[in-house]
């Protein structure tokens, strides 16, 4: 991430950024009502998530939630999700100071002069993946979300009108991939992860296991919330709750969870 800017301006107002005719039908439910995604996140996290949402972070950031795939809705999947629909994700390098090894949307902190949040999201995505911003249509901005690293993050939803080659182009990322959404959302790839501290649940949220990657935290929760709001969900076992640290170990210990205390033996 680039140098952060303290004392951010008021968060941008959530809402669509493109005319309805330019938004893929399978995304319009979300772009018409971005607040619905926020509600899915808060309802899933309960009082803990609502308390976090009330916190005003001192650093502004944006991420690009970039969807590729056909413009038209499909008839053979809930919510019209096309068979070729995908989302652009990165795996942060293990050398990063925060969230090392975690799977994330491309993005980063606001720079002076940025057209925030869209300009920030596109600039950071170009720097991290090499994508060409001219091929991306910004569709909507979601409500800002606080994250543990102290940033208030505004997700910008986009659609790849003209896809460009992407890959690892700097030291911040170790992997860049376009992940098929139908495959990611398949019931066999979905569960929840939990982190317990001092006998209490410190964290519990949606997770995905795909192509050797564990997707959880802010990224996993936002993907799950968007899918639920858009109607893409296929029923999955929400009672399947797995220990976070064990799942990180099962994928090769490439990630650092960010919890400073060791997990208790036998934690659920």
Which features does this protein show?
268 residues, alpha+beta, 9-stranded mixed sheet, 4-stranded mixed sheet, 6 helices, 13 strands, globular, disordered N terminus
Helices, strands, pairings?
Blueprint: E1 15-16, H1 28-32, H2 35-53, E2 59-68, E3 86-92, E4 103-104, E5 107-109, H3 118-129, E6 136-141, E7 145-146, E8 151-160, E9 173-180, H4 181-184, E10 190-197, E11 200-210, E12 213-215, H5 217-230, E13 241-243, H6 244-250
Parallel strand pairs: 2-8, 10-13
Antiparallel strand pairs: 1-6, 2-3, 2-5, 3-4, 3-9, 6-8, 7-8, 10-11, 11-12
Helix pairs in contact: 2-5
Short description:
With 268 residues, the protein is of the alpha+beta class.
Describe this structure in words.
- By secondary structure, this protein is an alpha+beta fold.
- It is 23% helix and 28% strand.
- The protein has six helices and 13 strands.
- It has helices spanning 28-32, 35-53, 118-129, 181-184, 217-230, 244-250, and strands spanning 15-16, 59-68, 86-92, 103-104, 107-109, 136-141, 145-146, 151-160, 173-180, 190-197, 200-210, 213-215, 241-243.
- The strands form two sheets. Strands 1, 2, 3, 4, 5, 6, 7, 8 and 9 form a nine-stranded mixed sheet that branches.
- Helix 2 (35-53) runs antiparallel to helix 5 (217-230).
- The longest helix is centred in the N-terminal third of the chain and has 19 residues, at 35-53.
- It starts with 14 loop residues before the first strand and ends in an 18-residue tail after the last helix.
């Amino acid at each position: 991430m680039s140098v952060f800017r303290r004392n951010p301006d008021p968060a941008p107002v959530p809402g669509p950024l493109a005319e309805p005719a330019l938004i893929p039908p399978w995304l319009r439910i979300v772009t018409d009502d971005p607040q619905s995604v926020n509600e899915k996140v808060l309802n899933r996290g309960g009082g803990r998530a609502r308390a976090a949402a009330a916190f005003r972070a001192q650093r502004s950031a944006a991420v690009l939630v970039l969807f590729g795939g056909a413009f038209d809705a499909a008839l053979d999947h809930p919510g019209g999700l096309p068979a070729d629909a995908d989302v652009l994700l990165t795996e942060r390098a293990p050398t990063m100071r925060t969230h090392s090894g975690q799977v994330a949307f491309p993005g980063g902190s606001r720079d002076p002069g940025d057209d925030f949040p869209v300009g920030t999201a596109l600039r950071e995505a170009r720097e991290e993946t090499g994508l060409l911003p001219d091929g991306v249509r910004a569709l909507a901005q979601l409500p800002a979300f606080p994250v543990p690293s102290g940033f208030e993050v505004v997700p910008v939803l986009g659609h790849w009108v003209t896809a460009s080659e992407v890959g690892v182009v700097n030291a911040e990322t170790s992997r860049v991939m376009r992940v098929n959404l139908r495959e990611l959302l398949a019931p066999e790839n979905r569960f929840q992860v939990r982190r317990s501290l001092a006998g209490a649940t410190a964290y519990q949220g949606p997770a995905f296991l795909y192509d050797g990657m564990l997707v959880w935290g802010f990224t996993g929760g936002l993907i799950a919330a968007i899918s639920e709001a858009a109607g893409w969900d296929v029923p999955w076992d929400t009672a399947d709750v797995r220990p976070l640290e064990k799942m990180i170990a099962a994928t090769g210990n490439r990630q650092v969870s960010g919890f400073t205390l060791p997990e208790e033996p036998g934690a659920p």
